[in-house]
Design goal:
The chain has 15 helices and 15 strands. It has 363 residues and is of the alpha/beta class. It has 2 domains: 187 residues, Nitrogenase molybdenum iron protein domain (Rossmann fold); 121 residues, Rossmann fold (3-Layer(aba) Sandwich). Helix 5 packs antiparallel against helix 6 and helix 6 packs parallel to helix 12.
Length: 363
């Protein structure tokens, strides 16, 4: 049980920060963005979370990804064959063929540098939870490493998806995937517009939850709900039982296989009294990658079944995806920096710090 609580605590705290801060010639992606054209010719350059302008000279044939969300993105854009190394564990087992890849992270989710270097990758995609010293060590070994920043919204997930596609030479597939994501989000938001917004609580364990500036709140809001923590905390932090009791959540958003928190505030809530608990795949909700829209669909259908049933998903209008074109330009600099960011977790004791280290295996 203790292990489950620790797992609950860290799943979102560490998994969320995976989206790229884009600059240079990389594509800027935001909601309702003008697709335009993007220069897909190599070399491709993008500024990463460390402020380093990373240049990929030629289309990579061998890619190492150091986090599950980056792996999911590669699979979703049809680039899984380029992946030679990745985390091979329970957090990527759902990706077909992942077990045939080389595991390149240790039990704490940090890269085993010798394994990464030994694979001789053309490009390494690293989550922001990857230790910066490890990133520099890999760079000192002559590898090209892009270090992602934090995801705080669906727009960030879209940005990461398109950027990943551009860096690995699969931009068109990434742009089409992003357009499908945006179409789904828009259709659901339009479909539940005007519906009552139930109060929602997403317990992660140890009192932690997702507040404002998190893509989890974006999921809840887009599904027609109201995150009770959004006005109380920023990023990922502890939500006091008093606030939970006062807000009285009407729904609990829970990961499959994890227990409902046993405390008076939760047990006395409308959600528990009326058995209103929606469970979702932890790999989809905790990995900021294209499959977050699957969680969105589940949650929206649960909150608003009648409104959801009226959405014609077979004929969803998707935005025009960006197109590859020589000489294409990214959006303006302001748009290029409207996404990214960090998260705040107050660590009071060394045990919680250790949990944070354990959580990195999930990114």
């Amino acid at each position: 049980m203790q292990r489950n609580v620790l797992t609950l605590l860290v799943l979102l705290v560490v998994l969320a920060p995976l989206t790229g801060a884009v600059g240079g010639s990389s594509p800027a992606v935001a909601a309702d963005h003008d697709p335009g054209t993007v220069d897909c010719e190599f070399p491709v350059s993008a500024t990463d979370a460390t402020g380093t302008e990373v240049t990929v000279e030629e289309e990579p044939e061998r890619v190492v990804v150091l986090g599950p969300s980056a792996a999911q993105t590669m699979w979703e854009i049809g680039a899984e064959d380029k992946v030679v190394g990745m985390p091979v564990n329970q957090y990527t087992a759902y990706l077909e063929g992942s077990k045939s890849k080389e595991n390149v992270v240790n039990a704490r989710g940090q890269p085993v540098n010798e394994k990464v270097v030994g694979l001789d990758p053309d490009l390494v995609l690293a989550p922001n939870t990857t230790n910066k010293d490890a990133v520099e060590t890999l760079r000192d070994a002559g590898l090209t490493v892009y270090h992602f920043d934090a995801a705080t919204s669906f727009a960030d997930v879209a940005a990461k998806t398109e950027l990943t596609g551009q860096l690995v030479g699969e931009f068109q597939a990434a742009a089409e995937t992003t357009a499908e994501m945006e179409g789904t989000v828009d259709a659901i938001e339009d479909g539940v517009e005007g519906e009552d917004q139930p109060r929602v609580y997403y317990p992660m364990g140890g009192g932690y939850t997702a507040g404002s500036n998190t893509f989890i709140t974006d999921i809840i809001t887009s599904a027609g709900g109201e995150n009770i923590a959004a006005d109380a905390i920023d990023g990922y932090d502890v939500l006091s039982p008093e606030i939970v009791a006062t807000q009285d959540p009407e729904w609990l958003l829970m990961q499959e296989g994890f227990p409902v928190p046993q405390n008076d505030a939760v047990n006395g809530s409308t959600a528990v009294r009326e058995d209103q608990i929606v469970r979702v795949n932890p790999n989809y909700i905790n990995q900021p990658a294209p499959r977050t829209t699957r969680v969105l669909r589940t949650v929206a259908e649960t909150f608003h079944p009648e409104a959801y049933s009226q959405i014609d998903f077979e004929n969803v209008e998707t935005p025009e995806p960006a197109q590859c074109g020589a000489g294409g330009e990214a959006e303006d600099e302001e748009a290029a920096n409207t996404f990214g960011g960090g998260f705040t977790v107050v660590v009071a004791v060394a045990a919680i710090a250790a949990v944070g280290l354990l959580a990195r295996r999930r990114t």
